[in-house]
Amino acid sequence: MAVRGRQRRPLKPEGRRRRVCIVTRAIDHGGDIREETALCDLARLFAENGDDVTLLWVPGKDARSSQELAARGRDLVGAASVRLDILDKSDQLLPSLATPESQSAAVLHYLERSGHDLVYAPLEGGLPYYTLLAVETDAFAAPPIVVIAHAPEEWKHEADKAFMGSTDAIATAYMERYCAEMADRTICVSATLRKWMLSKGWKVKKATVTPMLLSQSRTNRAGARPSAETRRARELVVLAGWRIRDGLMLLCDALDIIVPEASKGLTVTAFGPFGKIMGEHSGGLLLRRAERWPFKLNLLPHADLDARLDYITRTGALAVIPARAESTGGLVAACIEAGLPFVATNVGANAETWNAQAGQALLVDPDAAALAQAISTALDDPPRPLRIDSLHQIRQSWLDTRNLPPSVARKRIRSSPGSSPLVSIVMAHRNRPLYLKQAIAAVEVQTYGPLELILVDDGSDLDEAKRLLDALQPTFRQRGWKVLRRPHKHLGAARNAGVRAARGELILFVDDDNALFPEAVDHFVRAMAASGADICTAFQLIFYEDFVPEDRADGLIQYLPLGGPDALGLIHNVYGDANAMVRRSVFSRIGFLIEEPGYAMHDWEFLARASLAGLKIRPVPKPLYWYRSKPDGMFRMSNWYDNRLPIVEAFRSSQFDDVRPLCQLAIAQNTTRAEIESARENLKYTPANRKYLELCDLEPNSDVAIEKLADIAGSIGRPDTAAILLGRTPATIYRDAADRPDAGGNAIALGYNVLRGARLLTPRVSALPLLLVAPDGGGVFLRPHSDGPVAASLDSQFPAFFRRIEATVEVAHADAPALDFGLALARPDQTLDWQRDIAVQAIAFSGWMSVEDKFVRHPLVAALRVRRKMPLSVVLAVRFTGMPNGFPTNAFFRKLTLFGD
Asked: Where does the record place the Glycosyltransferase 2-like domain (predicted)?
């Protein structure tokens, strides 16, 4: 806990190294160049220049195992003597840091104990939010905080043409904006990004622009480039991720255009990690589009940016950067630094990063035809770029950011108000004498002097409660405190009565079942003075017992109010608890609390009205009281619907302005998956794409997905692509669709795992089995019966949008009589009457085909006139053509193949 009167530490105290903490959400680049991965390079740079650097990694809920990434991180930073700390929990919070709020609170708890002189943190994720809030509310004498912006949440959603579909996304966007506006210094890695922030109304006019730092290893490659004479084949290397903004679909459209003119010797190389573009696997998208391309396709599932640039250097390839939106310009900058030729779009930060002196091709509009023309021109006349070395200048710019001038760095002096205003603590009570004693005892030991306690009894009728009130009154009179005994009119009315009776300019509500920490009032008063807030709420420690714990280590912070945004304030209480400090002027501006009997959300409704009226609410990100949680409490006994009706009315009557996040949330959460994932949905309509559809349901970078991707590559005649994906030689991959277990392409051969699910539709009395399924490709055996046809169903095994099914049938017994074979397609819920005409009942029927010769296979086909959107059942049937002759009969459906065309 910070001490009153303590001044912030100098950035570099005399006689020791500057202690710098760099916070990051990622410690390896994973094939990407954007966002805060560059902070690892910054940590190395500072360490190389004499600073004592700690890299604080906050992995988040979606990261790979801590052990795996920690090992990777130590490899990355170890050589530079950077200490790596992993922040995946906090002893003050629940074990899992599953929300942006909990991750930010954990960062605050870490920094409170760390003793650093300077902190750098990414804007993305809002990690420094509570630390900056603690500075604003004078709860922590934090070192100067430098925030680095690469790609904020709101920018990413716009660039990827996606609405914010979760409350976490909305909260993150709110936290990021606050961090950009409140940091000691905000650095944007491009002027484009700073301009975007200003266009959104962010108060970041003082934000500076420093190009993103690139590591030394990425840029020292120019000398290894092969000459034009040694190039065996022309090659394009795709520098694009899987997001919409990365432009992978734009590239595919451009390659479609150059196909007629492209040499068959052209190679296209793309890299993982893979993701999903409108629901479709990005690697699958490339393979599917490549079915129309005559050139070779390489897919390397695991390659970071260093590996990609090294690959371009070794092969003499042309890089293609087809971005649709760009906030950093990092890929263009990396190619210019390394002297590697590229074709890129002129979007966003690409345009400001491009350097005419480098001799690179001109940037082009994000249009397929323009990009295709630029690629063709560069292939026909490969550019000979010059390496422009700006790394030294950029590195020095980042080193200079450590020297914050006094006008930028806040004074970290614990504020002491010019006067100590009277604080009126308003405590409502009814029939809880045990809890009341503890609440009053906590008020009596407050370290803040000028305060009064207004105890409002809301009609207690228990004898014990009445006796306690009688005993309290003399002591209260001596202290100038008040006990108001009123008829039972419920909590809102009691609190309002306390406010009207209070003399202080600052009102602190305290529930009678909670207990303030001794320093609570002092912290609240300082927070109000330092922040200029109209209302200050605070964190709390939860407990569940009848008596307040003696040790704060026994409590946890479970509720992390942000103080906004109002868009989330309609959904849940983002503002804080009822135990809050309020300026008296607030009541004259927005009125008092709701006095409706039984209502339980007075704090939420009151705070929402205050925020909607433009009043300033600031949570103190420090627990200032014990919060008792009991099953019989008002909140847990109330109805959520009733609690929210006044909230809705508060927003309705305020003519709430910023409804955009709520509209986005409503649209994103109530739009069908088929519409959001339109690319995946479109795969359903073409049977040949069934294999790609199956890939969509797998985790994009899992081993299973990579194997499936390779399997698809083999099935469409790209064994080299499959081999690269699996790290094998092409000889081990299927060379052609005909070599595969199924028919590949538009056809699917039903295997044993499907056939063994056959279900007998016509049970008849028989000494021998009427239905058998032979393993190892033997097929389905049906035994005809003298009572009529024998039929079996493969339920729902004819896929949607397929056109026909072909069976190979055979009579496999030398003495069998002639048999009729039939093949039908029917709805899964349809029952066929075998005493009637099957052709009239079924959706498709092959007709009865009579087979008299033995051991000769014949094709039998059932086809649809119109494709169906729902799966159908496949029905197999046999019957005697004439009369049975008493000999055994082996009627086989040897092979069943589905066709999409």
From this structure: 424-590
